[in-house]
Amino acid sequence: MTAPTALKTFLDDLDRFPPERLYGRVASVLGMLVEVTGLEGVLSVGGRCDVLARGDRRVPCEVVGFRDKRALLLPFGSVEGIALGCKAELAVAQPRVRPDPAWLGRVVNALGQPIDGKGPLPQGREAYPLRAAPPSAHARKRVGGKIDLGVRALNTFQTCCRGQRMGIFAGSGVGKSVLLSMLARYTASDVNVIGLIGERGREVQEWLEDELGPEGLARSIVVVATSDEPPPMRRQAVYLTMALAEYFRDHGKDVLCLIDSITRFAMALREIGLAAGEPPAAKGYTPSVFGELPQVLERAGPGVNTGSITGLFTVLVEGDDHNEPIADAVRGILDGHIVLDRQIAERGRYPAINTLRSISRTMPACNTQAQTELVTRARRLLSTYEDMGELIRIGAYKHGSDPKVDEAIKYVPDIEAFLSQDKQERADLESGYAALARVLGMDWPAEDASSGAAAQEGSATEQAAQTAGGKPIPPKNDLRRARRQKKAAGAAGEGA
C-alpha cells in the first residue's frame, strides 16, 4: 500500500470516531421549525444536530438558517416529544455515506439505512459527501457514444448518449412510472441508481416487484423517501441518490441515474425555504429552489475519468402545464426532454411519447447521415399529419388535395404502431432504424436490416431478412419491383 493511500485510509478511519460532544438547548418549536441556542458559534448551514426528545427518542435535524442568534433546524422525523429545554447534540458537520458494491440489489432510505429487511449494509472505506460539487466544467469529459435505452421511440427519435441528462415531462397518470421501469430494466448500463422521491408508500413495493422486477433490482440501488416523510428526508434522498451514482462513476462504471421526481424534490425545497423564512416567488417556490436545481442536476454527466452518469429525471407538470416554473427551469438545465402526452395515452398508445415535442440535444451529431435522413422524414410526416389532423379525423380533407398530406395519411398509422411498445418488450438500438426504414419503404444497409430483423418478432419479412446464398434479401418494395420487371420482361418475350 502506498503512503498516500495509507494516509487516506487512516483519515477515513479517523472520521468514524465520534467527535467531542457539544450540546445546546431547544428554545422554540414552531410548526416544523426547531430553534436551538448554545450552538450558534459552532453550527453552520447544512450542519447536523440530534435533538434528544422525550421518551429517549433521538431526532436528527439539519441547520437551515439562523435568526436572532438562534440556529433554525428542520427535523428528519416527527417533532412529537420535542419540548423547550431538550438537549440538542452537535452531530457530524458534513453528512457522508460509505457505499459498497454489495449495496446492489438493496433498498435504502434517505439516511442510507436498509428498509428491505435483508439485514445491515456493509460500509465501504471511502466516504462520499452527500452534497458534493459537480466535476469541473473544463476537467470532465464529453458525452460518450449512444446508449441503448431499450425503448424504440427513444432510441430512434430521441437518441441518448452516455453521460447525457434527459427529463421526462408528464402529468399524473400518463405512464411515467412504467416508462421509468422499462428504462431501468432495458438500458445497457453497468449500474442503476434509482431515487423514488415523494412516492405513495403503497406503490413502492408494487413498483419494485411488478415493474422493476428481480432482474432489474439485482443491478440497482433504490433510494426511497415516501410522500409522508418530512421535507428534509425527501431532499436528502436526492442527495444520497447522486452520491451513490458518483461512487460508481468514480470506479469506472457507466451509471444510469433515475430520479422520480424532481418536482417533488423542488416541493420539499419550497417547504424548507418557507419554513426558514424565505419569501415566496413563482408559484410559491422560493428563490433557493432555482439555485439548488442546477447544483443537483449538474452532478450527473460524464466524469473526469472513464465513468459516466446518464441521468433521466422525471418532472411532474402541474395541470399538464409544461411551462410551469419547475418544468421550465429543469428543461433549460438538461440536455433534452421527453414529453409524455395525455391525449396520446387516451388513444391507448404507450409509451405516450410525443415525438414532435421531445428533443435530444445530442442529435443529430451522434447519428449517421442515413439515420438523420430517416428520422427527419418520419418527423416531417408526423408533423404534416398533426397539422391536418382535425380535418382528416372529421372527414373534411379530400384525398388528392395535397400529395404531402396523402403521403402522411399513408404512413402515419404504421409509424404510430412502430412507436407503440409493450412494457415487457425490449427494443434493440440498431433494429429500431431498420424497422422504421421498412415502415417508410426506404432502403437500409443489409447489416442494419438483418440486425433489426433479429429483434422484431413474429414478422415473416423480418425473419427472412437474413441471407440467402450469401446475398442479402432485398426489402419488400425491391421484391415487388423485381416481380413487376420480370413479368414485364416475360410479356415482352411472348410478344416477340
TrEMBL record:
NCBIfam families linked: FliI_clade3 (TIGR03498), fliI_yscN (TIGR01026)
Database matches in SMART domains: AAA (SM00382)
BP terms from Gene Ontology: bacterial-type flagellum organization; protein secretion by the type III secretion system
Tagged with keyword Translocase: yes
Functional note: Probable catalytic subunit of a protein translocase for flagellum-specific export, or a proton translocase involved in local circuits at the flagellum.
Chief localization: cytoplasm
Localization terms from the record: Cytoplasm
Domain AAA+ ATPase: 162-345
Alphabetized InterPro entries for the sequence: AAA+_ATPase (IPR003593), ATPase_a/bsu_AS (IPR020003), ATPase_alpha/beta_chains (IPR050053), ATPase_F1/V1/A1_a/bsu_nucl-bd (IPR000194), ATPase_T3SS_FliI/YscN (IPR005714), FliI_clade3 (IPR022426), P-loop_NTPase (IPR027417), T3SS_ATPase_C (IPR040627)
Catalysis performed (reactions): ATP + H2O + cellular proteinSide 1 = ADP + phosphate + cellular proteinSide 2
GO MF, any single term: ATP binding
Gene3D superfamilies in alphabetical order: 3.40.50.12240
Family from the record: Belongs to the ATPase alpha/beta chains family.
Principal EC category: translocase
Keywords assigned by UniProt, alphabetized: ATP synthesis, ATP-binding, Bacterial flagellum biogenesis, Bacterial flagellum protein export, Cytoplasm, Hydrogen ion transport, Ion transport, Nucleotide-binding, Protein transport, Translocase, Transport
Protein name: Flagellum-specific ATP synthase
Biased composition (Low complexity): 447-469
EC number: 7.1.2.2
Record bears the keyword tRNA-binding: no
Gene encoding the protein: fliI
Pfam families: ATP-synt_ab (PF00006), T3SS_ATPase_C (PF18269)
Region: Disordered, residue numbers: 447-496
A GO cellular-component term linked to this record: bacterial-type flagellum
